[in-house]
């Protein structure tokens, strides 16, 4: 009986406290503007978290679904598939926000068969609601295993505040993501006849060569040879006389080979490709809304990574590999040189010698500070 009485008293006290809190909360809600503001913000944040979790779950499921789909390979079939997906996406958009995720999936599928994904993304940015475009970005990031995020640590470059972060764990040798470059070139010491000069693949079987090529380039297929000739080789090397050492073509070859650098040739190919695109517009009469010209303004924001001059370098132009174990959430970094266990002075000397700049990254600044502190302690 005493136990029952104690329980009833306890429940009564809890009830009074609960009612008192409800009365207090309702009073604050009606009379305290700051309280209402904070409470509304909490509700908004909770709703945003729920929406974010819903989108994340949808993206994972959608990307998995797309990865298992057999996309058409025929040009006509691709065009029909693309038009169907875009039409479905537009229909779903018209049905309201509750169908935005399904619409994003349709637009993402259309992106998979479109010949110029960057161009299509730019079109989406102009014609599709921002929320839907953001979901498409999430799908692309999830598929590539990386995401763009804020850099927490301070940087010596004040204008760079974002970085690339892994969305899953990687082991050494794992492919993080792959993509096709706008322009590429083999390192001069890899122009040995072992790799295709256009797609950079290691050659197997009988390669296709061109006796008039000043770089003595070889190709893995007739397709690569024809693409190289049409996109840049014919324009860059109008004079193919190897005995004419005074020609501009021969001087470019000498610059690349004597300096053992690939970037002059890569830049030349990039510029030639832009001319090729403009020429094709005149020939076909088709005017694309976006082309390689539109990327020039963005190039000033890029840092061109490079690794040791070894065979694996050619893969870096198409695939990004993990050099060490990477945990999900870690920032992805590339290095101009091989770092290993080398000290600060050794790394900086090579950077200044080959790349003409003094590195002030977080790693170097941290080691520099430690070295200076050790020197002061030894001096004292």
Automatic annotation (TrEMBL):
GO terms under biological process: intracellular protein transport; protein import into mitochondrial matrix; protein targeting; tRNA import into mitochondrion
GO cellular component: mitochondrial outer membrane translocase complex
Pfam families: MAS20 (PF02064), SET (PF00856)
Keywords linked to the UniProt accession: Membrane, Mitochondrion, Mitochondrion outer membrane, Protein transport, Transmembrane, Transmembrane helix, Transport
Protein localization: Mitochondrion outer membrane
Any one GO molecular function term: protein transmembrane transporter activity
Family, per entry: Belongs to the Tom20 family.
The name this protein goes by in its record: Mitochondrial import receptor subunit TOM20
Originating species: Racocetra fulgida
